[in-house]
């Protein structure tokens, strides 16, 4: 395979992957449903609504066909609903039933089929999902765009990030797109793109099995296309209404095409972690951190590290600004090529 044909084929595959990932992250319109649920807030307010879901300390509800809002879980003192919910605790335990009033403050009585009620503390609940919700009601995500301009060298820098996650009682599917484009008057245009797709099967005691797949392209590092696929075993070390911490390790197969270099194939050991922080209080922010190290089994001593961090802060309903940092490191790149590429960007986004 020649360098030009490899580049052309890589770009075609890259465009297809970008379109597929964007389709997965694009939200679908939500349908209206009867408002049979009640949420009681700490300030005394009472909302008659439809509970959509609770995730990362944000309770999403619909108050009428045209208005959906999010309530910080820390502001909720009681919930009532005749519908059946899947309720997940910080310990990983899951319960099913309708939501009713409990004798104690900050508690909910969970009952199913006329059996005895189970009393749970609201602070221990990290997820609420109505049973029977369709696919799109179990999806949440975001997308943001950033732009900067420097007059001195007429440099423009564009960034685009999008991600979506589908959650069910036993599975979690995630897709993400990260794209950057830099153009300067005195240099060639450069781009950096990453598409990731992951699927996890939740196991007892907060263990999980994950399938990993990723496509990467980085002109700054002369990387035309990197394709990665594999699997890992992980464990959620902590999940509360303030944070989620998980570790995983596994084996992946990587195919790389650098400019004017032969195609390389290698098996790698992957060791990664996901550390997310968020708040149930009035300031709505989240800090997500993902770091993965790859240790080559065919090229002794080669280590690759991929780091992604993002700070999101909501300033208007469903709109936020974010600070995004990305780092790619390769201890043994092709000769004359750079070992790392780091970028920092600010963007405005919308979550769904």
SSE series: HEEEEEEEEEEEEEEEEEEEEE
CATH superfamily placement of the largest domain: monomeric porin ompg
- Uncertain segments are 1-6, 28-32
Structural domain count: 2
- Mean pLDDT equals 85
Report the helical percentage: under 10%
CATH class of the largest domain: Mainly Beta
The span between the termini is 43 Å
Explain what the structure shows.
This protein has 352 residues and is mainly beta. It folds into two domains: 37-133, SH3 type barrels, CATH 2.30.30; 138-351, monomeric porin ompg (Porin, Beta Barrel). It contains one helix and 21 strands. The chain has one helix spanning 3-25, and strands at residues 37-41, 46-55, 58-64, 67-72, 76-89, 94-101, 107-111, 118-121, 125-130, 139-150, 155-167, 171-184, 187-202, 207-218, 223-239, 243-258, 264-278, 285-296, 303-316, 319-330, 340-351. The strands form two sheets. The protein has a twelve-stranded antiparallel β-barrel. Strands 1, 2, 3, 4, 5, 6, 7, 8 and 9 form a nine-stranded antiparallel β-sheet that branches. Strand 5 (76-89) and strand 6 form a beta hairpin. The longest helix has 23 residues, at 3-25. Residues 1-6 and 28-32 have low confidence and may be disordered.
Which helices and strands, and how do they pair?
Layout: H1 3-25, E1 37-41, E2 46-55, E3 58-64, E4 67-72, E5 76-89, E6 94-101, E7 107-111, E8 118-121, E9 125-130, E10 139-150, E11 155-167, E12 171-184, E13 187-202, E14 207-218, E15 223-239, E16 243-258, E17 264-278, E18 285-296, E19 303-316, E20 319-330, E21 340-351
Antiparallel strand pairs: 1-2, 1-5, 2-3, 2-9, 3-4, 5-6, 5-9, 6-7, 7-8, 10-11, 10-21, 11-12, 12-13, 13-14, 14-15, 15-16, 16-17, 17-18, 18-19, 19-20, 20-21
């Amino acid at each position: 395979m020649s360098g030009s044909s490899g580049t052309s084929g890589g770009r075609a595959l890259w465009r297809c992957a970008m379109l597929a990932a964007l389709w997965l992250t694009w939200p679908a319109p939500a349908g209206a449903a009867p408002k049979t649920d009640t949420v009681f807030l700490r300030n005394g307010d009472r909302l008659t609504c439809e509970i959509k879901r609770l995730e990362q300390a944000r309770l999403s509800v619909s108050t009428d066909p045209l208005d959906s809002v999010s309530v910080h879980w820390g502001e909720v003192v009681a919930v009532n609903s005749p519908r059946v919910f899947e309720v997940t605790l910080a310990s990983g335990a899951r319960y099913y039933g309708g939501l009713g009033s409990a004798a104690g403050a900050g508690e909910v009585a969970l009952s199913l089929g006329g059996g005895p009620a189970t009393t749970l503390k609201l602070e221990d609940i990290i997820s609420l999902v109505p049973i029977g919700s369709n696919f799109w009601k179990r999806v949440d995500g975001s997308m943001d765009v950033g732009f900067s301009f420097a007059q001195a060298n007429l440099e423009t820098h564009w960034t685009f990030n999008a991600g979506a996650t589908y959650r069910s009682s036993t599975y979690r599917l995630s897709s993400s797109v990260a794209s950057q484009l830099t153009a300067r008057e005195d240099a060639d245009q450069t781009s950096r793109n990453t598409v990731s797709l992951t699927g996890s099967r939740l196991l007892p005691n907060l263990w999980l099995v994950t399938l990993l797949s990723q496509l990467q392209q980085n002109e700054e590092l002369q990387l035309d296309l990197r394709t990665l696929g594999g699997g890992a075993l992980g464990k959620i070390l902590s999940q509360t209404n303030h944070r989620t911490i998980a570790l995983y390790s596994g084996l992946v197969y990587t195919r790389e095409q650098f400019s004017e270099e032969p195609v390389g194939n290698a098996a790698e050991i992957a060791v990664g972690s996901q550390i997310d922080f968020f708040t149930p209080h009035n300031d709505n922010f989240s800090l997500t951190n993902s770091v993965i190290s790859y240790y080559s089994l065919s090229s002794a001593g080669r280590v690759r590290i991929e780091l992604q961090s993002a700070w999101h802060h909501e300033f208007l309903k469903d709109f936020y600004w974010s600070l995004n940092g990305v780092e790619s490191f390769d201890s043994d790149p092709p000769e004359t090529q750079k070992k790392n590429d780091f970028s920092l960007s600010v963007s405005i986004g919308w979550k769904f």
